[in-house]
Each structure stands twice: as C-alpha cells, then as structure tokens.
Amino acid sequence: MRFLLQVLLLSAWALSAHAAEPDRRIAITIDDLPWQRMDKTPPDALAGRHAQLMAQLKQAGVPVVGFVNEGKLEVDGQVRPERVAMLRDWRDAGFGLGNHTHGHLDLHAVGLPAFQQDILRGERVLRPLLAERGQAPRWFRHPYLRAGRTPEERAALSAFLVGHGYRIAPVTVDNGEWVWASAYANVLDGQPDTPVRAATLERLRRGYVPYMLNKVDYYERQSQALLGYALPQVWLLHANELNAVAYADLVAGVQRRGYRVVTLDEAMRDPAYARGEDGYNGRYGPSWLHRWAMAEKRPKEFYAGEPVVPGWVLALAGVDSE
C-alpha cells in the first residue's frame, strides 16, 4: 500500500512539473535577403553560399520569413535576374518573404517621408514575384530595428504600413549575430586556405550556436519577469555565410531546449504584441521586450545578465562592440 501511495505521489508530482513547464514557442526571421554581404561577397562564391543556406533551411524543416532589401538585387541600378532567382528559391521552398526597405535605410537618419518612399521601392520586385503564386507581401521589418523617435512618428509609420497591407514584424530575441557573421566572413574571405583558417572558422561556428541559444534563454527569462509567462518569441537572423553552415544546428539547439518553431502569424497572435513598438524613443533598436520594459520604467537591474559577444570574436570582426 505504501509503495502504491509513493507511485501515485510521484506520478502527481511529474504531472504537476510537466504542467508547469513553459509553452516555449519561437518564430524565426532572416533579414537582408537575398544576401547580407552582397557587395562584399566574391561573385563566384555567391551562388554556392546561397545554395548552402537553402540546404540548411530545408534541413531544419521549420517555418521562416525572410526580409528583402531590393537594393541588393541591383548592379549599377539594374535588377539582376540571377539575384531575383535567389528570392524565387525562398518562395518556391515555401518560406515567407517580407519587405525590409529597398536600401536598408535608417528611419532616424533619413526621416519619415524618405523612409516611406523606400518602403514602396522595396516592393517593386517583391510584390509581382509573390503575385505569381497568388500571394502579397504582408510583413515589414524596420532596418536596424529603428521604429521612430516619438510616439507620433511611430503611429504615422504604422498607419502608412497598414494602408499598404503590411504588419510590423517585431524582434524579441535580439543578438550580436552580425558580429559573429562578420568575423566568420572576414576569416573565410580574408585569410589563406590553411589549417589555421579552417580551425578558426570551426571555432567561430562552434561558439556561435551556444551564444545564440544563451540569448534565447536570456529573453525567455526577460519575458517571464516582465509578462509572467514565456512569450512566443521572434528571433532575428541574417542571410549570411555563418548561417549557411550553422542554421540547422541553431534550430536543433533551440528545439532541444523545448521550443517549437512556429509561424510568425502564430507568434504574433499573443496579446502582448498588441503593445506595439512603443516604449523607447532613443536612437537605437532594442528588443521589443526591452521597449515594453522601458514603458513600464523597469529599473536598470532588470536588463542585467544579457550574454555578450566575446572579445576574440569582436577582434576578428574588426569592431569594438555589438
């Protein structure tokens, strides 16, 4: 009888522990399509690296939305068919495509009228490309995550986007992925093909994945502290050489942490996103979670503990900070 009681108690404890487990969901977004370092990538390497990334995306087998800078489709002002074909690969693989402006402009630098015009320039190829499949661009991502310096500017931009059929795609899991990617590309294209180069590339790849997963953990804790539950997160990545070799490992890693990779539509159904992008009036582009925390005037200590890019990676990237 005592044994049976122990079994029942253990079963009840296990069920209770399972019920208390957060509902971990994450949507993945990839910026700067068709390729982040388009003008710095050796032309004879571009097709192969793009194919690597597409293979990684298909291996991972999860939904993703890519955000397009149409200026990257052009050479001397002329749209290049082979670059449009890179976007067609995304579309035909079943991945979403959104607008990231034509020239990756900084709203805070150019002002709202010029920024709005660049949004429209950013759909001249994208809109007819999606129309071939009965689709239309639905998502917009701010370059640098800079969404406006005042509530009035943010509201005007949001109204403009809604009027053109767009919804803002926020970012909650922000990171220094661009630093790791710059370091990786610098070594890949700037060092001779030697065992030292290969070892450095492998060290970067192996360090990058846990760094990014630690960022996910950090923003999960931020969500729990701010909202009281695990928000369906939106993760920011870019189309680059590093993700062309590491993306599937990133997805596998976040799945091992108990996350389900969901569509951006599903993530955005969470009511927290109705808060929008308000809360931050500075020049930079922080995570939406941190914008909301600023709106609530959380103390400085709230933001502590965020993982940082190691110094050796900063040095390889040639930058001083994230």
Detailed description of the structure:
The chain is α/β, with parallel strands linked by helices and 322 residues long. 51% of the residues lie in helices and 10% in strands. It contains 13 helices and nine strands. Strands 1, 2, 5, 8 and 9 form a five-stranded parallel beta sheet that branches. It is globular and about 50 Å long.
Q: What are the defining features of this structure?
A:
5-stranded parallel beta sheet, 322 residues, globular, disordered N terminus, alpha/beta, two-stranded antiparallel ribbon, single chain
Computed structural class? alpha/beta
Backbone CA Rg: 21 Å
Shape: globular
Main β-sheet description: 5 strands, parallel
- Averaging pLDDT over every residue, what do you get? 94
Residue runs with pLDDT of under 50 for 5 or more positions? 3-19
DSSP helix count? 13
Percent of sequence in beta strands: 5-15%
Number of DSSP-assigned strands: 9
| H-E order | HEHEEEHEHHHEHEHHEHEHHH
Write down the oligomeric state.
single chain
Level of helix content? 40-55%
**What's the end-to-end separation, in Å?**
61 Å
Summarize the structure.
This protein is of the alpha/beta class and 322 residues long.
What is the secondary structure topology, with strand pairs?
Layout: H1 2-20, E1 25-33, H2 43-60, E2 65-68, E3 74-75, E4 78-79, H3 81-92, E5 96-99, H4 107-110, H5 112-121, H6 126-131, E6 139-140, H7 151-163, E7 167-168, H8 177-190, H9 195-227, E8 233-238, H10 243-256, E9 260-261, H11 264-268, H12 288-295, H13 311-317
Helix pairs in contact: 2-10, 8-9, 8-13, 9-10, 9-12
